Amino acid sequence: SIDPNGQFDLRISPWTPPPYETPDIWVNSIKNDITSPTPKIIYKNHDPSDESIPVGNGDAPWIGHANTIFARITNDGMQETPEPVSVTFYIISPPGVGDNGNWTPFSTVNIGKLNPGETKVIQADKEWRPAVDEHTCIDVRIAPMNGEVTFDNNRAQENFSEFETGSSSPYAPVEFDFNARNPYDAPV
């Protein structure tokens, strides 16, 4: 049960209308990432000062490919959580119906205990492979814990209406040196 005098409070920021997004849920698609020489996550929608810091949806989910769903969970309190924190990611089914469909559990992650003031960025434990490029809602819920100040901030939703439908090859131009030999007497 909630405890207005509790010493810990689990939180994920709710969406703000419009554009009905939260800064605490986003997706990474490998379509924009750098794969070599050093792998690096690059978000299509990113902080102007750093392309590895997501803004809004982060990436447009890539249809038919592996996408990673992230969430940011915080303990706004003066005490460590008494138990490990459980977070469940839900995806609306079928896509294209806003949030009027069925919330289908997608992934549940145990993130351990959270210290006072600690924030953890977590990811769903399986990859999301959307089949169609239709509006899809993702919901993240923190399991309520006895002694929390409130449960009103344990849930957030992110809406995805932009999807990447492009092909997968190549991710980025590949440059390399080579030698060419002309077996003819004339230049060709």
Keywords:
188 residues; mainly beta; four-stranded antiparallel beta sheet; 10 strands; 0% helix; elongated
Summarize the SSE layout with pairings.
Layout: E1 10-11, E2 25-29, E3 46-47, E4 50-54, E5 67-75, E6 86-93, E7 102-110, E8 119-123, E9 136-142, E10 155-160
Antiparallel strand pairs: 1-5, 2-5, 3-4, 5-8, 6-7, 6-9, 9-10
Written overview of the protein:
The chain has strands at residues 10-11, 25-29, 46-47, 50-54, 67-75, 86-93, 102-110, 119-123, 136-142, 155-160. It has 188 residues and is mainly β. Strand 6 (86-93) and strand 7 (102-110) form a beta hairpin. The radius of gyration is 21 Å and the shape is elongated. The termini are far apart. The model has no long low-confidence stretch (mean pLDDT 90).
What's the β-strand tally? Answer: 10
**General shape:** elongated
Tell me the distance between the termini.
Answer: 81 Å
Give helix and strand order, one letter per element, not per position. Answer: EEEEEEEEEE
Instruction: Please report the number of helical segments.
Output: 0
Mind describing the biggest β-sheet? 4 strands, antiparallel
Please bin the fraction of helical residues.
Answer: under 10%
Poorly predicted regions are none
In percent terms, what proportion of residues is strand?
A: 25-35%
Q: Which value, in Å, is the CA radius of gyration?
A: 21 Å
Mean pLDDT: 90
Give the helix/strand class. mainly beta
Question: What's this model, at a glance?
Answer:
The chain has 188 residues and is mainly beta.
